[in-house]
Structures are given as structure tokens and as C-alpha cells.
Amino acid sequence: MSFPAILGALSDMRTEFDRRLSQIEKTLRRVADVRADKQYFTVREFARLVGCREDTVRSWARLGRIAATRTRSGRGGRSELRISREELLRYEAEGLLGGSDDPK
Length: 104
Prior knowledge:
- By secondary structure, the protein is of the alpha+beta class.
- It is 60% helix and 12% strand.
- The protein folds into 2 domains: 1-37; 39-104, no CATH class.
- The chain has 4 helices and 3 strands; from the N terminus they run αβααββα.
- A 3-stranded antiparallel beta sheet has the order 1-3-2.
- Helix 2 packs across helix 3.
């Protein structure tokens, strides 16, 4: 490969890198805005923020690996899990709590 071809390939790689970095920064700004405004997150929101599946978040809550509370929703009196912003910050800093490994 010639030197000009290498420079061209590096330029293309730099352009792609800059594009991806811009997307990451935009996502981080959006996440920071959402997190700053909310005191509690739904299972779906928490899962998206930490990068896992909703079923995993429910399992963690059931096993005591994250602190979650049940709230009554307005729909038929069904309760829904909510995870506090403080718990999200704690999870990001420390990871999962000890909790129970019993999958009941």
C-alpha cells in the first residue's frame, strides 16, 4: 500500500471515529438530562441506562441485588417497580448488592 493510500485510509478512519464520538457525546448528554430530571426510573428506563435487559433488572430487584420499590400505578391497581436515582448512582459506582442468590 502506498503512502497516499495509507493517508487516505487514516483520514477515513478519523472521519468515522469523529462521527461515532459525536453520537456517543449526544447520547451521554441525553442520558445526563434524563437522569438529572428524574427521581425514579421504571424498569425499562433503568435497563436502558445500565445496558441490560428488563428481565435482568426485575431479577436483580427480586433477589435484592438492587434496591427497588413497588408503586401502585393508575392502571388496575397493578404495582410497578421503580428504582431511585440514588440507587442508579450507587449501582454505577459500586455494582450489584450482595443480595440472595436464590432465584425463587
